[in-house]
């Protein structure tokens, strides 16, 4: 248990550092077109929501808030909120309006408290927080869009346009090999992505190579190595990871076949929702079969 906690903390710290550096480079070098204030708005909303909801939850359960403690307790507690805020700020484009960004960041954090299931005796949130916040914002505010792929390399020379994706792939592979153990998921997701493009080509007449164009974008690489692989909301077993990655690709292909935009984010949200429902039903069935127990739904809503 202690080793697992140490690996999780190391992963969070490295991920938080990497996404912070990427945001800084994006606004100063790469070509991000969002306002400079956008990351600060997202972080303020994410930090505030995380602290407030944890305080409410601790009062409800009669325990000490997890952000109170010695040393780096507060810093480590806010790492997931930092990552979610930075991801929302980097991937959403709302022109110069800050409220949609604050809404997305707060929704990302709230999803962790509102939608939970019990896995191996512990509570786990269902949705990838930043992906949920982005998906909900795109649905609720149709005039909000996502950062276009060219923004990640707009100001780079031709050599750096190749080098940046290579760095992201290498660092992402190292992170997922050594810390998250999600390489089977990544390989299944990429393989199934190619298969769904082929299926749409033969079934609906889509051009095969243009259907693979998302593979060439930096945003797709970030989604692949840093979002779809979230350890807290994906299966731990290799078989489960392969099924999860293939399901996300299948959902994406179905959304594209019905001409739905923002397919990557919506596909991941749908698969997370389906997995959460399956875990809830499995927990409910196990509770009913256990002798002398009263069935209790596994999904709870935070106050």
Keywords:
disordered C terminus; globular; 12 helices; single chain; two-stranded antiparallel ribbon; 4 strands; 303 residues
Number of DSSP helical runs: 12
Provide the structure class: mainly alpha
Shape: globular
Report strand %.
under 5%
Order of helices and strands: HHHHEHEEHEHHHHHH
Q: What is the end-to-end distance?
A: 28 Å
Count the strands? 4
Poorly predicted segments: 298-303
Please give the order of strands in the largest beta sheet: 1-4
Helix content: 55-70%
Number of discrete domains: 1
**Mean of pLDDT:** 90
Using only C-alpha atoms, the radius of gyration works out to 20 Å
Largest sheet, in brief, is: 2 strands, antiparallel
Would you spell out the secondary-structure blueprint of this structure?
Blueprint: H1 2-30, H2 38-61, H3 73-77, H4 79-91, E1 92-93, H5 99-114, E2 116-119, E3 122-125, H6 129-140, E4 145-146, H7 158-180, H8 183-204, H9 208-211, H10 218-227, H11 238-257, H12 263-289
Antiparallel strand pairs: 1-4, 2-3
Helix pairs in contact: 1-4, 2-4, 2-5, 4-5, 4-6, 5-6, 6-12, 7-10, 8-11, 11-12
